[in-house]
Each structure stands twice: as structure tokens, then as C-alpha cells.
Design goal:
The complex is a heterodimer of chains A (131) and B (267). Chain A is mainly alpha-helical and 131 residues long. Chain A has helices spanning 4-18, 20-27, 52-73, 90-97, 105-112; strands at 77-79, 85-87. In chain B, strand 4 (146-148) and strand 5 form a beta hairpin. Classes of the chains: A mainly alpha (131), B alpha+beta (267).
């Protein structure tokens, strides 16, 4: 290979520059942290409307379905797999158990870099102490 | 059985002809002009007084003889504005209105009459979304954000609205407003039980669908001090709205357009 010294040096410089944002964060101690969810305390723990495994991956689909049912079909209740009925209201049913959005919703949303725009229009209910 | 080449070619030809003809026929049966004709016939029928079979058809009756708008009463408007987080931008250009007042002659353009009771001449008629039975806004909405519920209420799904404003052009009553600016900073006292809107969506009176779903009347009906507003099921012969319409003479806004508005004004 001709000019191998220059090419390899160039490649090393390119790789260093390309990955510099990662090194910058690592050196500044701001390395990406795993989401740290605050789950309902033991005594407040109730069953979720669906299995945790499902909720973790598909909560947005469930919320989308709820929205469709409530807004367009006028349905109010959701019958869960565990045989219970839940009111299809995010601000009441979901936030009832997970009142702190910054310790729950935002943890994963910031981790994966998504910004849902729920709160552009919806209001956080006044009876819950929500940040 | 063996088929000769000649027969096979004939069969292929006939099949091709059949397929083409079927497509041609079905395309033309569903063409816009055919649909328009069907709609015109439907509208004609409706104007002649027959209603399509429907279990619940919600409607509102406004008794203008009881409404004291000329004395400056704005109770229905105020309650609505507060309940639905309606912003006040402080200028008419960007105004968001769900309920508002029109002078009698403007509200009922086809009722032009120079000589009439003074009482009605000075009347400011409270006007709302008419939740038409044949709503043009629903027809034009490209995303189906605006739609008619089974009980007849014309709704907007704000999640889906893309702000194209076709519905505003289609509505002959001017019932719809557009959020040119972010409304949140202009709402004095936010009601947390109802969402606000965001910049770029259309909004209008929804006959308090959130209350109707809970079995309540719209808030304007509840707060009216003179009980001038009555809300109910038009398809129930025993309902108050039907009784009022049976016993009194009523008019509607621009009925000639065929939209079949479902707010009836008693005069």
C-alpha cells in the first residue's frame, strides 16, 4: 500500500473526530445512564392495566387505542386481561399510580430521545402532585 | 375434455372484455357525479321532512323569547369559555369563539324583514356550532379529524387536525376558529379537566361532548338563567325538545343550504 502511514494516521484522526461527542461525554462524567424508574411503593402497588412486559414495549399503542375508543367511539371503560375494568383516562388511571411524570415517563423518553407532545394540550390534573 | 386453440383464444378474449367492462362500470357507479346526485336526492328528501333512521339525534332548542341577550347577559358564553379553556387574545382577528352573539338579521340572513317586533330587532342571537345532520365540515376534512358521532354531535379530534382549515371554509355558519398562536398564555384560569389546544388546530363548540358522555347537558344549557336553552334527543317523541318544537314555531339558520342544522330557534 502506498502512503500507508498517511492513510492510517488520517483514519485514526477521522475516527477520533467522529466519535468525539461520545468521548466528550464520557470524560465529563455524563455518560449515558440507564433509565431509573420510580415505581409505585409496595403498599400502593396495584395491578397495571396490562402485563408489564407489554406495557414496556407497547404502552404507546395502548394509549393510541384508548384515544381512539374514547374520542371517536365514545367508549369509557377498558376490560383488562385480568378481568378488571379500567377507565380509559391517562390522567386518572395511568397517573393515578405513576403520578410523577419526570420520574417515570420522562426517564425512558429522554433515554431513547423521544418527545411526546401530550402536555402541549393536556393539563396535569390538580389533585395529583405532579412535577 | 380438450379445448382447441381457437376456443381458448375466444374464452381469453371474452374474459378480458368482461374484466374491463366490470371495472368500467364500477368506477362510474362510484364516480363523484353519481355520489353528488345521490347526495342531492338525500338532501332533497331530508328537506322534505324525512329523517334517516337513527337512535339518538341530539338537538338544541333556543327560546329567543326567553333569552335576555339584549340586556347584556353573557352567562352561557362565560361558562363555556371557562370550561373549555378558550383563550382571549384581546383582538378580533385571532378570536376563538365557541358561543357568540350575532344580531338577529345576521344570524337569520334569509329572514330579512325591515318591520318586525322591536324586541327581535335588537336581539343578539346566541349562535353555536349547529352540529348539522349533513355536516359539510366532515365532508371536506382530509384527515377525518372532524367527524359526526352516532348521537349526531359533530366533533373534532384535535390529535388528528392538521390545520388545513378546509372545514372553516366549508362551514356556512362561521362556527370554527383557528389557533394562529399558542393559546396557552392567553387563558386566564386554566381548567385542568379540559385540554387546551395548540397552535395550528381548528376548534369549535362540541356541544360539551365530555359532559354529554357523562349524561349531563351542555354547560350553557345548565347556566342559562332564563332556561332559554333546551337540549335533548330529537328522535324521542316524549323529549322536551320535541314538545317545544311541536307547540311552537321554530326557525333554523340557513336551512336552505341543506346542511340540516340541529339548533332550533323559537321566535
Amino acid at each position: 500500500m502506498y502512503d500507508s502511514g498517511k492513510i492510517i494516521a488520517g483514519l485514526i484522526i477521522f475516527a477520533a473526530l467522529f466519535t468525539s461527542p461520545v468521548w466528550y461525554d464520557v470524560l465529563n462524567g455524563k455518560a449515558l445512564q440507564r433509565p431509573d424508574l420510580v415505581l409505585p411503593s409496595k403498599e400502593n402497588q396495584k395491578e397495571c392495566v396490562a402485563a408489564a412486559e407489554f406495557m414496556r414495549r407497547d404502552h404507546m399503542r395502548l394509549l393510541n387505542d384508548w384515544r381512539y375508543e374514547v374520542v371517536r367511539k365514545g367508549e369509557t371503560y377498558f376490560s383488562s386481561d385480568n378481568g378488571k375494568e379500567y377507565e380509559m383516562r391517562f390522567t386518572k388511571t395511568c397517573l393515578g399510580c405513576h403520578p410523577n411524570t419526570s420520574q417515570f415517563c420522562d426517564q425512558c423518553h429522554s433515554y431513547v430521545g423521544v418527545t411526546p407532545y401530550c402536555w402541549d394540550c393536556h393539563n396535569k390534573p390538580r389533585n395529583l402532585s405532579i412535577q | 375434455m380438450s379445448i382447441s386453440r381457437r376456443t381458448l383464444l375466444k374464452l381469453v378474449g371474452l374474459t378480458a372484455l368482461g374484466v374491463t367492462a366490470e371495472k368500467y362500470v364500477s368506477v362510474h357507479a362510484g364516480s363523484t357525479s353519481a355520489k353528488l346526485v345521490a347526495k342531492a336526492i338525500g338532501a332533497g328528501k331530508r328537506l322534505a321532512g324525512t329523517k334517516p333512521a337513527q337512535k339518538v339525534r341530539l338537538a338544541m332548542v333556543v327560546d329567543l323569547r326567553k333569552c335576555v341577550s339584549e340586556q347584556g347577559c353573557t352567562k352561557c358564553i362565560d361558562a363555556c369559555n371557562k370550561a373549555h379553556n378558550i383563550p382571549d387574545f384581546g383582538e378580533s382577528k385571532d378570536e376563538i369563539k365557541w358561543i357568540w352573539k350575532e344580531p338577529y338579521q345576521d344570524a337569520f340572513l334569509d329572514q330579512e324583514n325591515f318591520y318586525m317586533k322591536d324586541e327581535f330587532k335588537n336581539k343578539k342571537v346566541p349562535v353555536f356550532c349547529n352540529s348539522c345532520d349533513n355536516p359539510p365540515c366532515v365532508e371536506v376534512c382530509p384527515t377525518q379529524a372532524t367527524f359526526k358521532r352516532d348521537d349526531g354531535i359533530v366533533m373534532i379530534d384535535w390529535h388528528r387536525c392538521i390545520g388545513c382549515r378546509y372545514c372553516m371554509a366549508a362551514c356556512p355558519y362561521g362556527s370554527r376558529s383557528f389557533n394562529w398562536r399558542d393559546p396557552r398564555p392567553f387563558i386566564k384560569d386554566i381548567n385542568p379537566d379540559f385540554p387546551t389546544r395548540m397552535k395550528g388546530v381548528v376548534e369549535k363548540c362540541t356541544w360539551c361532548d365530555e359532559r354529554v358522555s357523562q349524561g349531563l347537558s351542555p354547560i350553557c344549557v345548565d347556566v342559562c338563567p332564563g332556561k332559554a336553552l333546551v337540549f335533548g334527543n330529537l328522535n324521542d317523541p316524549g323529549s322536551e325538545v320535541r314538545q317545544l318544537l311541536k307547540d311552537n314555531f321554530s326557525i333554523r339558520r340557513k336551512p336552505g343550504l341543506g346542511t340540516s342544522p340541529e339548533i332550533y330557534y323559537l321566535v
